[in-house]
Amino acid sequence: MTLSTILCPIDFSEATGPLVAYAATLAAGTGAALRLLHVLEPQPMLAGPSDLDLAQQLARYHASAEAAGAQVSTAIVPGTDAALEIVEEARRHSADIIVIGAHGRTGLSRFLMGSTAEVVVRTAPCVTLLLKSPVETGAYRKTA
């Protein structure tokens, strides 16, 4: 399988750094372009970070992916359903693979909050690589 575009949705959680590092290593190793995507869902006025904070965080992940040797682009898209926006972004950019993190929620919290990663895996137009949070499983192995 030849990869030309890797889509990596990020949510700026604790797992984002290792997820971006994994996706960047995969992109650098295959020569694929890496697209980092954040879906900006509506939030109560004082609950979320400012646009400047998001842009600065995204710039840091962009720089770390470039330092790993990946060709990187970034996007912040508004949407009410992150999974739908991720799948649409994969279609718009003809992604060959989506590298997405899973927070590992189970039981009631998963039932109440849903699973963005699960919906993406079921509806994506391409291969999806689901990575568990390194916080729960230890560090990711870098095999790419």
Descriptive tags:
five-stranded parallel sheet; 6 helices; 5 strands; alpha/beta; 23% strand; 144 residues; single chain
Describe the structure.
This protein has helices at about 15-30, 50-65, 80-90, 105-115, 115-125, 135, and strands spanning about 5-10, 35-40, 70-80, 95-100, 125-130. Strand 2, helix 2 (about 50-65) and strand 3 form a beta-alpha-beta unit. It contains six helices and five strands; from the N terminus they run βαβαβαβααβα. It has a five-stranded parallel β-sheet, sandwiched between helices. The two termini are about 15 Å apart. The longest helix has 17 residues, at about 50-65.
Describe the sheet with the most strands. 5 strands, parallel
Structural class: alpha/beta
Gap between N and C termini: 13 Å
Report the total helices: 6
Shape: globular
Unreliable runs, pLDDT <50, ≥5 residues? 108-113
Question: How helix-rich are the residues, as a percent range?
Answer: 40-55%
Order of adjacent strands in the largest pleated sheet:
3-2-1-4-5
Give the percentage of residues in beta strands. 15-25%
Question: Mean of the pLDDT scores?
Answer: 86
The counted number of beta strands is: 5
Based on the structure, what is the oligomeric state of the protein chains? single chain
Rg value:
15 Å
Question: Helix-strand pattern, N to C?
Answer: EHEHEHEHHEH
Question: Layout of helices and strands, plus pairs?
Answer:
Layout: E1 5-9, H1 16-30, E2 33-40, H2 51-67, E3 71-78, H3 82-92, E4 97-102, H4 107-113, H5 116-123, E5 127-132, H6 134-137
Parallel strand pairs: 1-2, 1-4, 2-3, 4-5
